[in-house]
Amino acid sequence: MTTAPVVGSVPAGAVGPDGDGDGASPPPGAAPPAGSGHRLRYVIVGLVLVGSLAFLVVKGLTSALNFYLPADQALAQKASLGSQTFNLEGLVEPGSIHPTRNGVDFVVTSGATRLQVDNTGSPPQLFQPDIPVIAVGHFSGTMFVSNQILVKHSSNYIAAHPGRVTAPNGSKR
């Protein structure tokens, strides 16, 4: 005696479209199979990792791209710089250093340009007249407002950047 197969039945052990082994399709509106959920999680985690890596690369590159502008070039580009923070390069004019309650005011020169700098905070120990400095800050009106002064050792700085700093007597250092 042979039995006729039942319409709609699936042989034992067959895997159906939903992957659970019963051979039946999931009802409409049912949750996707478990394997799809894991793939979605992997995709989301991958996108988060790629996004985080991209953010770190962009942030690292923009913070690493510190540019130095001599005082004469900075003054010429003042309108385009606006209140953007940058590194101002110049020579401390002798007789221009005046201690204040918040730090020190001084004048940097570059070529024939003189630029007043208002620095908040303590200047470094090597800060003195007639040396090249980098002031980190931004323009505020006609003054450069700084919150950090970097002093380069003259012989090392001049060797690394020959001809960039002009001494008060007009000679290039």
Describe the structure in your own words.
The protein is of the alpha+beta class and 173 residues long. It has two domains: 35-65; 68-160, Beta Barrel (OB fold (Dihydrolipoamide Acetyltransferase, E2P)), CATH 2.40.50.140. The protein contains four helices and seven strands. A five-stranded mixed beta barrel has the order 2-4-5-7-6. The relative contact order is 0.11. The model has no long low-confidence stretch (mean pLDDT 78).
How much beta, percentage-wise? 25-35%
Question: What share of residues is helical?
Answer: 25-40%
Average of the residue pLDDT scores: 78
Going by CATH, the architecture of the largest domain would be Beta Barrel
